[in-house]
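[step 3/7] fold_predict: job queued, chain A
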Amino acid sequence: MNKLIENTKLRDKQYVFEDRIEAGRLLVKWLKNYKGSDGIVLAIPSGGVPVAAEAAKALRLPMDLLIVRKIQIPYNPEAGFGAIGPEEEIILNKELLTGLNLTEEEIKIQIEKARDIIKKRNQLFREGQPFPSLKDKIVIAVDDGLASGYTMLAAIRFIRKKSPKKIVIAVPTASKRTAELVLSETDELICLNVRSGFPFAVADAYENWYDLTDEEVISIIRTK
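[step 4/7] structure written:
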């Protein structure tokens, strides 16, 4: 329980991965014990999809998408004050919210926007298919990195309700503080590049970083 696995050679370093595909291939080396197991890889779109696809292919495990969404700060959409899970579970960063001075109406609007994105992505990426059973399975949830960690917390709490055998979070990079936060709620966290510097940006772990288009995500899903 609550086991952190990291590549200490990459601690506090930046630009350690060429791109998400390379990061996925490097993650596999630390996930090899799960190869051919009774497990499933769940990708967090959009950035987690190419990482997860590499892992699922090498581990010979099925892959699906776990669609969660951060609740964006109105004037800073790159940041969020919480997240919503697949079944509309809401997790709020109450400490951050206290300092944002948002009105109840502003908070409500941002929550609704996040909820709408989840619905649209579920239809676009998963085509409304029923979610696979996670009961008694080893579930490996993959993203391209952890910033605040709240989207992954929403993912973990959703997975936990489905009675898995074990929850493994696998990400190429994360801030030290967030890694500790996520580790407190999962069985195992594999993070190759833990960084303690501030400010933290997931993008700083990658030489080539860009936002994936919906078309790119769909292409990866169809060829997995």
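[step 5/7] annotate
The radius of gyration is 16 Å.
The mean pLDDT is 94.
exit 0
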